[in-house]
Design goal:
heterodimer, A: 255 residues, alpha/beta, 6-stranded mixed sheet, 4-stranded antiparallel sheet, globular, B: 225 residues, Rossmann fold, 5-stranded parallel sheet, 35% helix
Amino acid sequence: MEPILSVQNLNKYYGDQVGCKNMNMTLYPGEVVGVVGESGSGKTTFINSISGNLNPDRGKILINKDNEIINFLEISESLKRLLIRTELAFVHQNPRDGLRLDVSAGGNISERLMSIGQRNYGNIRQTIFKWLDKVEIDKSRVDDFPRTFSGGMLQRLQIAKNLVTSPKIIFMDEPTGGLDVSVQAKILDLLRKLVRELHLSVVIVSHDLAVIRLLADKIIVMKNGEAVESGLCDQVLDDPQHSYTQLLVSSVLQV
Amino acid sequence: MIELNNITKKFTLHNQGRTNISVFKNLNLKINPGEIVALTGPSGVGKSSILKMIYGNYFFQSGEIKINNYKIDHKYPRNIIELRKNTIGYVSQFLRVIPRVPTIEIVMEPLLEINFDQEEVRERAEKILLDLNIDKNLWNLSPLTFSGGEQQRVNVARGLIRNYPCLLLDEPTASLDNVNKDIVLNLINEKKDKGSSIIGIFHDESSRKYLNAREIDITKISHAN
């Protein structure tokens, strides 16, 4: 099997400041890669740089689209936009950043569908209902504005909005960040099911090691903009080799 | 078949004065198909470490581990993930699950990796839960609120619902009463008869005898303590 996404020697600077440097990652179909580290370690810079939100300064991002390798940083802006609408999806920590609050829930979900040319109202409506059902939002809420939704519902709506066009690669920045723990459990369960059912490939950033342990197959530990350790998720968490990872793992509070 | 050749394992605790703890040097071990190996020795001697190295949770410094001739190589996490999906089952001591997910779904999950027929998988999960005396009323509840023995049986159900060529069992009967212990031991024997290579830690001698296990005293080969 070939990787669906491969990041090679990626660097992003803010002036003289290091955002992230010498980052490498391979993501296979159906795989979840977790990126962890303290705040300021470069996690969000990294995920933004590989998802088209930021322009990295150096490095390669190779995306495998139907066995054709696309050099993401060297394609035209329009092709890049198309890829971002179809093959890629980005779930923000704050669902309000990923949703249009003055457009109905159904309108939010249909946006990506329409942007790739779907016009049949009946089909679109059906797809919307299918996705509301998948993310466990009552169908009766389809015409309500997201601003009337709770935080957990907003996050589920954002997930539906992103996954409706069956993107292959999903980027998530702290998807359970601002949610209380009972809602967090529900989102984690949803994400795991979707990954398995739809064979999604996911890059997920979180400072919460427990979330990463439950979701991720592989892990990248970042510090000061660089990866200090990476590998099989439970090996890195159970038997960390680098001093910083050991510090991170041993700092988690036990409940 | 599980093979460990010349394994060296040590822990370096960077934040605690760079303490080095050597656990194994030149560890060799082989578990044949249809065989049960029981690791014995006092706690802290490295029994679980062996299981974790085989499963890939623990890194090792040198030597090689082969599972049905596939090497455990941490440079290629993808291969370990595939091995786990297809070849190695692991019943750990503790249940680690997402809160609020129903027991039946937790048990179904490993089988759903390879079988996409929800109904068939559900039937298999129901059968093994019945075999393990988990009350039907509990199937739709999260196991996190169950008793220790019930949680352990859910863990066993999850690990034994498939027929893995290799099985790792970390105290699968530790908190079970005698009736349920015998049920679990019988399930393990069934897996052995189907040709699994099984390695485990069983705290009581009667279990080891019942399973007709080849006992290996880790004290003699471990460097810990």
